[in-house]
Structures are given as structure tokens and as C-alpha cells.
């Protein structure tokens, strides 16, 4: 199995932790790097190899996002990410993808709409959780 | 040094009060400077007790404006890239002003883009946004061309703009984005 991908967070970029052994696929923090494509290039490269390998092994993938602040170009790349997951979801024999996105505020219409847009590129649900709502 | 030489300091302060600017910056726009301006923006909005979704809107518009300047702003001769950014606040209404130099050739293009978003309804803006997400590739500068649409969507108001000739090659571009609390 492919080695984990770990990228530490900075003021401009989120922490990325893709660790198949631990079943963790998380992006936590903010995302407005000057060059978005450059920052996410290793993420897409890693994912391409991983998803290709995973098609024939029984592994469900749970993606977790905690990103509240992002620039418009990042949104474009997350849309591409959802498309890659969709292709995987259609091809995979056993594995399935679930995606959770945690937001600070349930009042954040803009981010809720953004997530809906990203979801439209996929064929699965993105469950949105809110920090300001009591967790049951 | 006599007192009168420093009168301009108070005059600037008075002007800032008049226009209720809570942040102004003019000068070089580098990654480190952007980092500093954004940290200051966030702190100021936090201290002012700005409601979270309003705070996020103002912050995100600042990100888009600063990155627009950094990606598209022009430098005059061998001087550093000029940028001006200000946030004004009147009660709960915010105005974000940004200004930078652009090439004369890009004036019409920017003007058309702003006019297009200004004439679009909320739903039309969302559609335009989606279309770019679906089709456009990233430019050489790594941008998607979503910036102005994103600013317009977050603002929910018409974007005000102004162009002024600087010299034979360059023009000033001024953009004002209003952000009001949604009811």
C-alpha cells in the first residue's frame, strides 16, 4: 500500500493527511495559497496512484474536510478532486467513498453553496456538519 | 522639528475617521505583506465583534482582492508592484477598496467582466461560477478567472469601479466592494 501523504499546515495552506492504513483522508485548515495548482499538485499525484491501486482492494474511503476559508481557485481544485473520487466510485468494485465537511457556522450560506457545487461534480453525498450546532 | 510639520498625521487620522477606515495599506504587495494584512484584517474584525459570516465574507473578499493585485497588478518601471487596500466600516456595512496598476490593454476586459457580473442575478452568478468550474483550465498564473464572480457573489451588491490613466501603458484600477449583513 502507498505510503501516507502528510503536509503540515501554514497560514495560507491546510494540513493534509492522507493515511490509508489509518483510514484518514483529511484536509484541515485554510486554503488560499498564491499558486493553488502548485500546492495541490502532490496531492493529486498521490491520489491518482492511490485510487488506481485501491480499485481492487476492499477499502472504503472516508474523506474529512475542515476548511472554512478558501480562495476561489482552491474551490476549482476541490471540484476536480470530487471528480476524481466520482470516477473511483464508479469503477471501484468494493470500495465506497463518504465525505464529511465540517464548517464553523451554519449561517455560512456561501460555503454551504460552495460545498453543494463541489458535490455536483460527484455521485455521492457530502455530509455537512456545523460546529455551532449541538452534536448529538 | 516644529509641530506644524506633523500636522499631516492628524489630518490623515481625521480623514480615516471621516471615512471610517479600519484598515488602510498602500505599497508593495508581496506574499509576506498579504499575510500581514490578512492577519490584521482578521484581528480588527474580531475585536470589532463582527458576526462570523460577515467576517468571513470581508476576509475572503480581501483574499481575492489582494491576490488579484498580486497576480495581475503591474509595477511602474523598476518600482515595486503598487497596491492600495482599505476597509471602511459604517455600522455593520463594510466597503472594501482596492486599487492597483493594470495595463491599458486590460482595461476593457476588466470593465466587461465587472459589467457582466453587475448585470447578473444571484442565480446567474452561481451559473457563471459553475460554468467556469466545469470548463476552464487554470491560467499560467495558476488562476481560474473566478475572482470577480466570487467577489460579486459574496458581496451581493453591484461592484463599483473606476479607471484612470497613469501613463501611455498603465492605468489605475479602483474597485469598491460593499458587504452588508444579510437579513
How would you portray this structure in words?
The complex is a heterodimer of chains A (136) and B (183). Chain A is α/β, with parallel strands linked by helices and 136 residues long. Chain A has one domain: 2-Layer Sandwich (Transcription Regulator spoIIAA). In chain A, 37% of the residues lie in helices and 28% in strands. Chain A has 3 helices and 6 strands; from the N terminus they run βββαβαβαβ. Chain A has a 6-stranded mixed sheet with strand order 1-2-3-4-5-6, covered by helices on one side. In chain A, helix 2 links the parallel strand 4 and strand 5. In chain A, helix 1 runs parallel beside helix 2 (72-91) and helix 2 packs parallel to helix 3 (109-119). Chain A is globular and about 40 Å long. With 183 residues, chain B is an alpha+beta fold. Chain B has a single domain (3-179), classed as Histidine kinase-like ATPase, C-terminal domain (Heat Shock Protein 90, 2-Layer Sandwich), CATH 3.30.565.10. Chain B has helices at residues 7-18, 31-47, 52-72, 107-118, 122-135, 147-155, and strands spanning 21-28, 82-90, 93-103, 160-165, 170-179. In chain B, strands 1-2-3-5-4 form a 5-stranded antiparallel sheet. The longest helix of chain B has 21 residues, at 52-72. The radius of gyration of chain B is 17 Å and the shape is globular. The N and C termini of chain B lie far apart (53 Å). The model of chain B has no long low-confidence stretch (mean pLDDT 89). Classes of the chains: A alpha/beta (136), B alpha+beta (183). At the A-B interface, helix 1, helix 2 and helix 3 of A face helix 2, helix 3, helix 5 and helix 6 of B.
Amino acid at each position: 500500500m502507498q505510503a501516507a501523504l502528510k503536509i503540515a499546515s501554514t497560514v495560507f495552506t491546510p494540513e493534509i493527511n492522507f493515511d490509508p492504513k489509518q483510514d484518514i483522508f483529511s484536509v484541515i485548515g485554510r486554503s488560499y495559497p498564491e499558486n493553488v495548482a502548485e500546492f495541490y499538485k502532490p496531492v493529486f499525484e498521490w491520489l491518482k496512484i492511490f485510487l488506481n491501486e485501491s480499485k481492487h482492494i476492499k477499502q472504503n474511503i472516508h474523506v474529512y474536510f475542515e476548511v472554512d476559508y478558501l480562495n476561489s481557485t482552491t474551490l476549482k481544485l476541490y471540484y476536480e478532486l470530487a471528480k476524481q473520487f466520482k470516477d473511483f466510485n464508479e469503477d471501484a468494485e468494493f470500495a465506497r467513498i463518504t465525505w464529511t465537511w465540517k464548517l464553523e457556522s451554519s449561517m455560512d450560506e456561501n460555503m454551504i453553496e460552495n460545498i453543494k457545487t463541489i458535490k455536483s461534480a460527484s455521485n455521492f453525498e457530502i455530509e455537512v456538519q456545523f460546529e455551532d450546532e449541538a452534536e448529538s | 522639528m516644529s509641530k506644524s510639520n506633523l500636522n499631516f498625521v492628524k489630518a490623515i487620522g481625521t480623514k480615516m475617521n471621516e471615512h471610517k477606515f479600519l484598515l488602510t495599506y498602500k505599497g508593495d504587495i508581496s506574499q509576506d505583506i498579504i499575510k500581514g494584512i490578512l492577519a490584521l484584517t482578521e484581528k480588527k474584525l474580531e475585536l470589532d465583534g463582527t458576526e462570523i459570516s460577515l467576517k468571513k465574507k470581508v476576509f475572503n473578499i480581501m483574499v481575492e482582492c489582494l491576490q488579484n493585485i498580486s497576480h495581475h497588478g503591474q509595477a511602474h518601471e523598476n518600482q515595486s508592484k503598487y497596491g492600495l487596500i482599505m476597509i471602511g466600516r459604517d455600522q455593520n456595512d463594510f466597503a472594501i477598496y482596492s486599487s492597483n496598476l493594470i495595463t491599458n490593454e486590460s482595461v476593457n476586459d476588466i470593465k466587461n467582466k465587472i459589467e457582466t457580473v453587475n448585470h447578473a442575478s444571484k442565480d446567474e452568478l452561481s451559473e457563471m461560477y459553475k460554468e467556469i468550474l466545469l470548463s476552464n483550465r487554470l491560467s499560467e498564473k495558476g488562476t481560474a478567472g473566478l475572482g470577480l464572480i466570487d467577489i460579486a457573489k459574496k458581496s451581493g451588491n453591484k461592484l463599483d469601479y473606476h479607471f484612470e490613466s497613469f501613463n501611455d501603458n498603465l492605468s489605475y484600477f479602483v474597485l469598491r466592494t460593499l458587504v452588508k449583513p444579510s437579513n
